[in-house]
Amino acid sequence: MGCLEKANPRFGRIPISYLALPGSENAGTYNLDPFGAVNQPGSACTTLSPALPVTGVKAQRFSSTQDQSIVQQLDDGVRWIDLRIGYNGNGNPLSGWRVAQNLYSSYPLLEYLDQVANWAGQHPNEVVFVDLSSICYDHHPTDVIDRGLWANFATKSPQGAGPLTLADVAVTPSRTQSLAAATLSQLHRASRNVVVLVPADAKDSDVLAKRYHVDAVHTTPVADGGAATQVYRSDPRIAPTSPTGFSSANSQLASVSANSPQLGSLRGRGLYVSKLAYELKGASATSQGQVLSNFVGLVANQGIFRAWMSGLWSGEYPQILSTWGTATNVVIANGVDHGGFVNAVIALNGR
Is 237 strand, coil or helix? Predict the structure, then answer.
């Protein structure tokens, strides 16, 4: 967020929990494998019913929350990279870990991490947050495979992402201060400007620090308390099952729950990460089928329901955020290259 500090130097001195940062919902899904379906019942890697016969390109289009590479998203101004990952069962403790959302990504996790690392190395005055917000352990990975997840942070991508790995640019967080109390100016120092967040219950996460020298911030839900940086994650709205339902759903999305903390209310203890997204998780297989039977593309003006995420993909971010966005520290959204998303989120900091 060096551009933020340049525009107003005081933003560099404000704790993260008093700022609004633009984020990308499951940022690596632009490269999902249409033939790599998540097929384990009850998997945390999928929002779709296992009984739903949705495969191939249609499943890929539906599951792709972004259509730009991570480098392009960072160039556009996104600074919070949300990644949901899972083990695809191929037996490889390194390459078996993939970005996952109904499908597994074509490339291993390390490709997406290297994109962040090399962009950050070229922009030393910016701060990037990499949040492994969800880790699912499908296919019963062994202890070796569990530990192999963390090797992705220190292994160069064979796809040519660049010379750096995330281990080369990861921030070493303060031992006495929550991340939420840190400022942007404190975080981009000594050519290390990427903050890594992992769930407190991630398996063998001590390997990340001890072997690969990435000192990650461990997150817990706000209600759990404890010493870890606390994160309040908003619940996404369930997608409507017909075009007529989208108007009311967008209105619900714009309303603030009485239980949601207001911007700055966590006072340096935690972060409120909110999703501007619809999901199908929790909807019946019949409802999911109704949505997906009509689904033909990713972007609203290319054939998907015209009203789908109408406030998100077609430029109504300021309208939504004016009533809803002040209750968040991090806004993560689908289609972050559409509708002036980044500018709308950054504008919240001027209030």
Answer: strand
**Buried b / exposed e along 127-158 (16+ C-beta atoms within 10 A):** bbbbbbbbbbbbbebeeebbbbbbbbbbbbbe
Query: pLDDT per residue over 64-120, tens digit each?
Result: 888 899 999 999 999 999 999 999 999 999 999 999 999 999 999 999 999 999 999
Of 241, 202, 305, 277, the C-alpha closest to 29 is 277
Q: Are residues 312 and 276 in contact, defined by beta-carbon separation less than 8 angstroms?
A: yes
Which structural domain range is residue 218 located in?
2-350
For the stretch 148-197, pLDDT in tens is 999 999 999 988 778 999 999 999 877 667 888 888 888 887 679 999 99
Q: Tell me the C-alpha to C-alpha distance, in Å, between residue 229 and each of 103, 130, 198, 202, 267.
A: 30, 14, 10, 14, 12
Residue-wise DSSP of 251-301: HHHTSPPTTSPPTTTTTTSEEEEEEE-EE-TTS-HHHHHHHHHT---SSGG
Closest CA to 311 of 297, 294, 325: 325
Residue 273 has pLDDT above 50, yes or no: yes
DSSP annotation of 208 reads H
Where residue 58 sits, what CATH number does that domain have? 3.20.20.190
Instruction: Please give the mean pLDDT across all residues of the chain.
Output: 81
Measured CA to CA, the distance from residue 265 to residue 262 in angstroms comes to 5
What is the number of structural domains in the chain?
1
Tokens of 14: 């404000």
Report helix, strand or coil for 41.
coil
Q: Which helix (H) or strand (E) holds 207?
A: helix 206-210
Residue located via tokens 């990975």: 141
Residues 79, 23: contact at Cβ < 8 Å? yes
